[in-house]
Amino acid sequence: MVAYDKNQVTLHLCKNGFVPGYEEWHFHGESHSRVSTQMEVDDGEDVDRLDQMLDDLQPEFNLDREDPPTKEVQELFELLQALEYPLHGQTTVTVLQFVTHLMGIKSKFAFSGNCYKAIVDLICDVLLADHKVPKDMYRSKKLLKALGMPYERIDVCPDNCMLFWKDREKEEKCLKCGKSRYIEVVNEDGEKVSTKRAHKQLRWMRLSPRLKCLFLARRIAERMRWRKNRKGRADGLMVHPSDSDAWKALDSFDPDFASDERNVRIGLATDGFTPFNMTAASYSCWPIFAILYNLPPDLCMKDEFMILCLIIPRPEHPGIKLNVMLEPLIEELKELWAGVEAYDTYKKQKFKLRAAYLWSIHDFLAYGIFAGWRVNGRLACPICGKETDCFRLNAGGKYCYFDYHRCFLPLDHPFRLQAQEFRKDTVVTKGPPQRRDGWKIAEELSKLFTNNAGDGFVGFGETHNWTHKCGLWELSYMRALILPHNIDVMHQERNVCVALFDTIMDFGGSTKDNFKARVDLAEICNRPTLELRENGGRPCSKFSLKPNEQRDVMW
Q1: Which pTM value belongs to this model?
Q2: Which of 141, 254, 275, 484 is deepest in the core (most CB within 10 A)?
Q3: Residue 56 and residue 47: Cα distance in Å, rounded?
C-alpha cells in the first residue's frame, strides 16, 4: 500500500474524481453495516432519491425468495414495475420520476391545482403525441396513491368529549355534551342550518403500514434486528434502551414477544406545536410521534425514523381530553400487540410483526396531561405521590422541595445527621419513597371513585393527583412496564440554568434570591448572616457576583 501526502491526494481527486459507488468507507475503517441517513444536497437542492428507493425494493423481484410477499406488497411491486416506462421514446425519465418531482415542486412552492394543470398542459403541448404524462392532478395523485401513506380524518366534538368514529360514526351530535358535530350557520331565512363541515378533525396516520415498510428495505430490515446482533456489548453501561430495566421487564412479561428480534418497541412523544409564526393568531396543534427503539443509537432518534401518528387540532392544549384523542392509536397498539402480517426483505419471508408501547417522553406539563397526573400543587411529583415531604413557603407562596434530597442519600451518609446545615433542627433518617411500577399504579387507579360532582376523583389533591385514567392502561401489558412515562429534561435544564444565572448575577427582577426568599430563609434555615437587616436591607450572599465580577463574566 502506497501512502500519499495531502496535496497528492487532492490532485488525484481533482483529476480522476472519487471512486463511484464507494459509499461505505470499509477501506478506511468504517463498519460495513453502517446506514447513512443524511440528506444529500446538490447546490442547495434536494437530490432525487427515487432510484435508491427502487434499489431497496429490487431484491423483492428475485425469483429465489422463500415466501411470496403479501398482497399489498405485491400490488406495490407491480405498480413500481408498471411505472418504469419512460415518458416517451426519446427520454429515460420515467413517469414515476416525472410525477414525483413535479408534485414535489408543487408542494415546495405551494402553487394551486389550476396552476399545476396549466403547467402540465404546457408540457403536454411541447412533448410528442405518444407521451404518458398524467393530464391533471387527479391522475397524478391516483398514480402515487399506492406509494403514499394515507391518513384518516375523524370528526371530533367541539369540546373534545368524543370521536365520531366506529359505532358513533353516523352521530351528528355529541352523546355527552349535545353539541353539534358540524358547523352551523344562519341562512337567509334566519334559520340555523348545518354545513356538514366538522368543527374539528383528528388526523390519524396508521402506524402498522409504515412499520411494514421498514422491513421492505433490506438494509433497514437488517438494522431493525440490531439489538440481537450488536457487537461490543458493554456490561453495566446503558448505551441503548435495550440495556434498560424497562426493556428487560417487558421481555420477562412476554418471552414469546422477546424471542423475535424484529418485534418493535415504541416510544411516544407529544407537545404543543404552533404551525404558524409566533405573531400569527393563537393556534396550536398536538402532534404525536412514535420512536422506534429497535434501531441502533445512531438511527433511532433520526428524523427519518420518527413516525407521525396523530395530529390533534385545537386552539389550545387538549388537557385531560387528550385521552379521547388517543383512542385510534390505542386501538392500533392493541392490534400490533396481537400481531399483523408483514414481509421481511432481509430474510425473504413472511412473519408476524408485533409491536409494544415501551414508554412516553414529554416535558413536565405534557407528562401530566399524558399520564393523567396533575403536576402542580403539593402532590405535583408523580413519583413520590402522597409520600412527598414538600412544604409551602409562607412568604413565597410556592411549594418547595428544599432538603427533600437527603432521603435519597445512603443511610450512613454524614449529611443525614447534620441538624443545622439544611433545615434547622432537622435530621433525616427515612429512606426514599418507594418507586411505583406499573402494577402498583394500576392497583391505585382501580381504587379511584368519581366524586359526587362527576368532574374528578374522590381524594384529589389530598391523597392523589389523578385527573383521569390514561387509555394506555387498556393495553394488556401496561402493568408490566416499570417506567411508563419519562420527562424530557430540556425545558427543566433551561429553566434551572436561567434561574441559576440570574441568581448568581443578582439580576434584581429575576433573581431567586429576593426579599421573600430571605423571609422564608429566616424561618426554615439557620443562616443568620443572610437574614434581612432591621432596615429591610438584603445582605450580600457569597454566591452572588459583585458588579466588577459581573463585568468580568459578561465582557
Answers
A1: 0.76
A2: 484
A3: 17
